[in-house]
Amino acid sequence: IGNTVLHILVLQPNKTFACHMYSLILSYDRNKEGPGSLELIPNNEGLTPFKLAGVEGNTVMFQYLMQKRKHNLWSFGPLTTVLYDLTEIDSWAEDQSFLELIVSTKKREARQILDLTPVKELVSLKWNMYGRPYFCFLALFYILYMVCFTMCCVYRPLKPRTGNKTSSRDNTIYVQKMLQESYTTYEDELRLVGELITVIGAVVILILEIPDILRVGAAKYFGQTILGGPFHIIVITYACMILVTMVMRLTSTTGEVVPMSFALVLGWCNVMYFARGFQMLGPFTIMIQKMIFGDLMRFCWLMAVVILGFASAFYIIFQTENPENLGQFYNYPMSLFTTFELFLTIIDGPANYDVDLPFMYSVVYFAFAIIATLLMLNLLIAMMGDTHWRVAHERDELWRAQVVATTVMLERKLPRCLWPRSGICGREYGLGDRWYLRVEDRVDPNKHKMMRYTEAFKAQDRDNYDKGLEKLEINRNIVYKKPSALSLSRSILRTSSHRGWEILRRNT
To answer: Which part of the chain is the Ion transport domain (predicted)?
Structure first.
């Protein structure tokens, strides 16, 4: 019952009342430090009151709980060294990491905890000492891996075509080699080494990604932008395309260019994932993700309807015409592709002035140009501009959350020997087996003194403002009008509070 009440207090809107009641309930707890403490009992979702405060974005309760866990090590003048308990904060050996819970929640208030002590100092320590070097090395290794895969695709085994052409539009001069013909020369053996590296890399990607999907869940794993959800879809699809290409090569099946092309596009697009390690590029990847999976996905439905309608009309119009004179609409698939190019204004309207064009072509193309180019493309630009404006206001906050998610991911994937535990063991200071983070804080007494002066000057300003209002009401010869700060500026300039403000500005 006591643990349930603690969880309810974390969700209370009255933060001051919740903190006092929280302390009152814990004062009756007999096991304050042991494993049976009320603060360490999780709810049905596996969240303790401390983790629940972080997930809900209750910064007041979080700071209150952290003040209870800190230990003042020493103090000398304005300098103070504090030890913060990292229990439930550090993601080391945690199945449900506190940092991962914060970055995966949909509440924006929860991300504000990343700027609070000691979470900010802990993340900075992990990222600067281990996260950034490992992440940069991983980015370099992945780029070299993609260069290897690209070279294997460029020099894939091909041979001249021997069969006769069946159509005048057939332009194929090379075909894929059979498996027995693909690895005969020294160059083929070098390419084989690169292909083995590519396949091994795809298998490693699947081995690293599948356990996280099973642990977190597909919806949460792929749906969170901060956790890199779209990039996880890209890299898993890339690995699957590599394995499909390998099977087609081993069985000598023609058409390996299809999965190979998809793998090249997806593999190189995944390089953008590593932009999150740099403050200059990280926020822009978030904008791209939100535009693609938000604005562009909705726009594609409208675009598909327009393209299907006008492509069908163009195909019907040119169905009776000679395709050699105007071949952009000679069959239905080519008509769809040509209409898509016209929609994006990649090409101009196809026309052959040596022959007579159908009259309906001019009418349909005029309507298509108005709807597609003038209306829908400008609608897409407006939607993306609105998304850019919304994301720009919180891009730095989102980038810090990306850094936290990347740090937790690397800490979970890398061996313990490459990522030692952060902080100081409490046994060094007689505080038990818990781990602590040492933070040095500087308290400026002048800052607090100026804050007291500011409050006093504000009170004097309010008094002078009220006196000015009374004088205006008493004076009957002046027409009454609603006073403003400008009408009272001359009287306020002569007050002692204004002189106090001037002294405060100069001292600052």
So the answer is: 135-393
